[in-house]
Structure formats: C-alpha cells, structure tokens
C-alpha cells in the first residue's frame, strides 16, 4: 500500500487510453516473516483463501481498477518477476514496456 496513491494517480491519468489490473501475489513482508514496522498486519498466505482475504484489504483502499489474485504456485509472480513491484504495458498480448520500481 506504500505507493498506492501514486498508482491511483497513474490510473486517473491514463484510464482513457489503458486498462489497469493489479495482481496480488505472495505477501513479501508478512507479519510472521520479514515485516516492516507500520505495515499492514498480514501473515504469510497458507491457502488461496488467505491470499484472497489479504487482497480484500487492498480492494478496500479502492485502487481504481480490478484486483485479481495469483494462484498459490505463484505463476504470475514467476512469469513477470514482480518483486518489489513492476509496471507492465501490454499491447496485442505482448509486453511492450516494463519498469521496475526501486526498493525503498
């Protein structure tokens, strides 16, 4: 949720020309793992239901676009290398642009 306001502004700026989608992946900084202080209290997902419950916290923050959840085998995260976070632009089914956000 650290950069959510920046993401929301991106959606507002480009929603007329692009569709946005957030894919919720494995929790990188879970409370029962490598947690930051002042972070949302989310334990490492043990099931798809855990991951869906955690994604609902993000949905409550209104990201201005659909939120979907990666499967427990982390297929999306593996294919797109989404750590710490990434922005991809796809056109006609092909990645035409990607940017990795620096760790803070």
From TrEMBL:
Keywords: Oxidoreductase, Selenocysteine, Thyroid hormones biosynthesis. One of its GO terms (molecular function) is thyroxine 5'-deiodinase activity. Gene3D superfamilies: Glutaredoxin. The keyword Oxidoreductase applies. GO terms for biological process: hormone biosynthetic process; thyroid hormone catabolic process. The keyword Oxidoreductase applies. It comes from the Eukaryota. It catalyses: 3,3'-diiodo-L-thyronine sulfate + iodide + A + H(+) = 3,3',5'-triiodo-L-thyronine sulfate + AH2; 3'-iodothyronamine + iodide + A + H(+) = 3',5'-diiodothyronamine + AH2; 3-iodo-L-thyronine + iodide + A + H(+) = 3,3'-diiodo-L-thyronine + AH2; 3,3'-diiodothyronamine + iodide + A + H(+) = 3,3',5'-triiodothyronamine + AH2. InterPro entries: Iodothyronine_deiodinase. Responsible for the deiodination of T4 (3,5,3',5'-tetraiodothyronine). Belongs to the iodothyronine deiodinase family. This is Iodothyronine deiodinase. It comes from Myripristis murdjan (pinecone soldierfish).
């Amino acid at each position: 949720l650290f950069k959510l306001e920046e993401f929301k502004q991106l959606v507002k700026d480009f929603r007329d020309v692009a569709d946005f989608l957030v894919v919720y992946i494995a929790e990188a900084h879970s409370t029962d793992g490598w947690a930051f202080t002042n972070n949302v209290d989310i334990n490492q997902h043990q099931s798809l239901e855990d991951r869906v419950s955690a994604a609902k916290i993000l949905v409550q923050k209104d990201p201005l676009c659909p939120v979907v959840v990666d499967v427990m085998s982390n297929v999306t995260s593996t294919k797109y290398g989404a750590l710490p976070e990434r922005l991809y632009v796809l056109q006609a089914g092909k990645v035409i642009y990607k940017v990795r956000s620096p760790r803070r």
